Amino acid sequence: MHRKVAVGFLGIVAMLAGCAKTTTSPPPGATSSHAPASTSPARSASPSPSSTAATVTVVVHTGSATVAGAAQTVLTSVTGLTLYLHTTDTPAAVCSGTCALSWPPLLLASGMPASSVALPGALGVESDVNGRQVTYNGHPLYGWKNDTSPGQATGQGINNFFAVTVTVAGP
User: Fold this and answer.
1) What integer pLDDT is reported at residue 91 of this predicted model?
2) For residues 67 and 156, what is the distance between their CA atoms, to the nearest angstrom?
3) More confident: 76 or 21
4) Whether pLDDT at 74 is above 80
5) Average of pLDDT values for 131-153?
6) Would you state the torsion angle of the CA atoms of residues 48, 51, 57, 59, taken in this order, to the nearest 10 degrees?
7) Distance CA 95, CA 157 (A)
8) 97-138 residue pLDDT tens
9) How many CA atoms lie within 13 A of 147 on its CB side?
10) Is the pLDDT of residue 23 over 80?
């Protein structure tokens, strides 16, 4: 089965992010956080899991959402809400502080992140100002405060945030 990853991009929409908190509850071991700092120190990647036993927590699923006017398979949180990446994140700066109030980072208290389905890309975790943030192909993952139910991708294109779409070719 051939799989490839595509990140859906729309035109950039200039809009200030609000300051409301998300209303979803993360699973045990995974959290959404609102970091108090407004600046972001460098982040560091956790080493890949070794052959020794490591705690693995399922924090990523896939679901269907309308992205750029078309139904797409997207990465979702365990509550089914669309996950986003921020195209302007760098190893030295991630969305934190006021930004993280609108775009809560997907955090994992300990262990390694896993998905409920096989993904064509790699999940990981990086330690940054937000804590232990879950990544997909090296990109930190975020929720969006205005997505309140599965199937929504209302944050698409806002402030350089884009839903993480996963295209899976048929057998």
Assistant:
1) 84
2) 7
3) 76
4) yes
5) 97
6) 40
7) 15
8) 999 999 999 999 999 999 998 899 999 999 999 999 999 999
9) 26
10) no
Rounded-to-integer distance, Cα 23 and Cα 125, Å: 23
Neighbours of 80 (CB within 10 A): 17
More confident residue, 41 or 76: 76
Report the pLDDT value the prediction gives residue 15, as an integer from 0 to 100.
27
DSSP-assigned states of every residue in the chain: --EEEEE-----B------PPP---PPTTEEE---S-SS----EEPPPP-SS---EEEEEEEEEEEETTEEEEEEE-TTSPBPEEETT-BTTB-S-THHHHHS-BEEESSSEEEESS--SS-EEEEEETTEEEEEETTEEEE--TT--STT--TTTTBTTEEEEEEEE---
Cβ atoms < 10 Å from Cβ of 88? 10
Using the Cα atoms of residue 142, residue 126, residue 95 and residue 19 in order, give the sign of their dihedral. Answer: positive
pTM as predicted = 0.71
What the block records as the tokens of 82 is 């669309």
